[in-house]
Amino acid sequence: MAGTNGFQETSRDSSPAVTPERISYVGTGNGWSGGRTEWSIDRSGRGSYRTTVRIEAEGQFNAGPEGFARIRAILQPLEALRELPCEGAVTDQGTGALSWQRGDRTSSLRFDFGCNFRQPDAARTWLGRASDMVREWALAKGSRG
């Protein structure tokens, strides 16, 4: 069924209203540069970040429950989505998956960065904002923890 902005919504059994225990992302760079980026944050605000796309960097952080709430708020419009509509794609671009873990259930949203999305690319913008925030926390001096 079509949701707001034409995105496909998941069925209610994935319960986006229930706070996830963990939010994570795993993605690859484009076919030319390769590499991989992974990050996660749990409800307590503890998380990690690692990338080998363009540069190699990694770190752990504790942003507290408030940090988790900030990441969740940025990504919340994506929690109920099953897929991002795509009309044609450039095949040598990166891909990724954003996931929400609730107990033994995990719901994921796949990104194909070569897609020509039908609507403004808000999903990519939201993912970028969350990823930038996690990277800043992980790479800040003294943030190990």
Describe the structure.
The protein is of the alpha+beta class and 145 residues long. It is 23% helix and 32% strand. The protein contains two helices and eight strands, in the order βββββαβββα. A six-stranded antiparallel β-sheet has the order 5-4-3-2-7-8, covered by helices on one side. Strand 3 and strand 4 form a beta hairpin. Helix 1 (64-79) runs antiparallel to helix 2 (122-139). It is globular and about 40 Å long. The chain starts with 7 loop residues before the first strand and ends in a 6-residue tail after the last helix.
Characteristics:
alpha+beta; about 25% helix; two-stranded antiparallel sheet; 6-stranded antiparallel beta sheet; about 140 residues; single chain; globular; 2 helices; disordered N terminus
